[in-house]
Amino acid sequence: MRNFLISILSGLLLAFSWPITGWFPLIFFAFVPLLILEKEITIKVENSSWKVFGYSFTTFFLFNIITTYWIWHATIPGSFAAFIINALLMSMVFVLFHKIKNVLGERKGYVSLVFLWISMEYLHLNWDLAWPWLTLGNVFAPIPEIVQWYEYTGILGGSLWILVLNILFFKFFILEERKKKWILPSVFIIVPVLLSIVIQSDIQNSTSEEIVIVQPNIDPYKDKFNRDAQTQLDDFIKLAKSTLTHNTTLLVGPETALQETIWESKIDKSQSVLKLRELQKQFPNLNILIGSSTLKYLGAKKEERSRKLNNKEWYNAYNTVVFLSSDSITSVYHKTKLVPGVEQIPYSFVLDLIADFTVDLGGTSGSLSTDNNVDLLHYNEIKILPLICYESIFGDMITGRNSNVIAVITNDGWWKNSSGYKQHFQYARLRAIEQRKSIIRSANTGISGLISPHGDVISQTQWDEEIALNVKVSLNETVTFYNRFGDFIGRIFSFISVLLLFSSLVKYKTKKIPTF
Q: Coil, helix or strand for 216?
């Protein structure tokens, strides 16, 4: 029972350090009880891997449930699938660390924990089951002033900071003469914070733009997909006009705001686009960025995620940003990071059989396509990087796309009034720091607003609020180190993790260590 309570303590410390749920400094100690438990099991129990797995799974399953419970609002079976898969990945890291420590010794063992964990987080950013919501570096989203160095490292730098401090505090806790060893943990806390203060100097912004952000506040369960599409658009336009001026250069609407079925080959003739073009006649400088579901006719050509139109014809479906420039050009951007189980079935040759038990996290459901001809949306000197919902928690996907402002559109109403939509908004603050760009965020409901290149919230809406915001948005041409090199920490650490695993396997085989 004691060991079980210790594993629960680690789970609670992790969960109650998380944004919205708790207090972030707890993250620096959250792994310590589990590390103490692992050390005790190693000393007392032979063939201890299953014990380590069981207790670590308890920790991480509890962590997942408390922080992402809001997935239940969409689907209870799917939420448990997410909790279990994520907890399994985290537990496997802990078991591998335990095994390597037994083979290569304590020093290399604890180093391996850092490398293996960050490698797991990097995997979770890049495979078909990607779910990086609980990447440790996300914990600092509400306090961006202490992680301004994310413009160099991204969130994996925050994960590295957390893991190193946990190991140092664990070592400090088990030492008998602690007074002599307090300096190192203190240095590792203070130096990154001081570095952040130094980095947070004034950013030179070239110009600013007047932009209107609309939050229509339509219930996705009751109204959004049941009300007439044109009535919804009329309400959207009416709300936008309440704050539009002739100086407004951009109007931003949320994900899937256009409910009309739109074929991309006929997009300029669709009723929704024609109505928005009429609005532009009243405001000649106005460009419009808005979410839609669009379809592309393929004829007899079938692609990987194509849907069948009839026995001989196929089409692709997309979660789309429609961009209507003031010079009458129409562009579309397709969402490329799709929600596993909602917008794509990962490893479909295996998982098609369990498609009914998937996790619904908002947006357009069904098997979607991801091909794209557009990375940035342009008007005048403005270069907008569009991100749709789930894409805004992936920093590395922005690498090499040199915008001067970022627009996030989302439909967070699926998660109801929970911590889910609040966490989602907070994570966008980290994207602002990584790229040093202002972020315009339009949510169907949840939190719409404006975030500065420092990650500061300039303006935001409330839950269940129908509103249009008129804001001044600064533009920034800075290209950060992280924008150039992305998640280099994840790539380097993954390579070293492979070497550590190979080294421990070779040593085990040559010396036949029985505890492996």
A: coil
